[in-house]
Amino acid sequence: MTQRPPSHTHRPVPEASQPGSTPSPRPRPNNARWTGAKASTFIKMLARSGKVTSCALAVGMSRQSAYRLRARSPNFAHYWDIAMGEAKRRRASSRKGKPRVHPLLSRVPLSEMDLADIPAPGE
What we know:
4 helices, 43% helix
């Protein structure tokens, strides 16, 4: 009688989950404390992108801690509003000069569109 291999096979543990290995590519935010330098960098990045999560993670903080700081610091909230306004202006100016969205791809329901707006094939 021959022996069969066990029904389960040994699968190696991925390197990232082994003790002493390098951490995952996306480091966990350090929620220790907001510093003046972190807050300043966050506001500058927010003015460029308008993305709270990515800006908070870039300075080593979480999105939730950024919103908590905004709630308890009126100065930070004021600069946050200014930064979001700047980001909104940047997005609007980057859209200027871009071609209009085709009517069939528009978010406006077809019933509200004029069929004359739809270009003929080849136009």
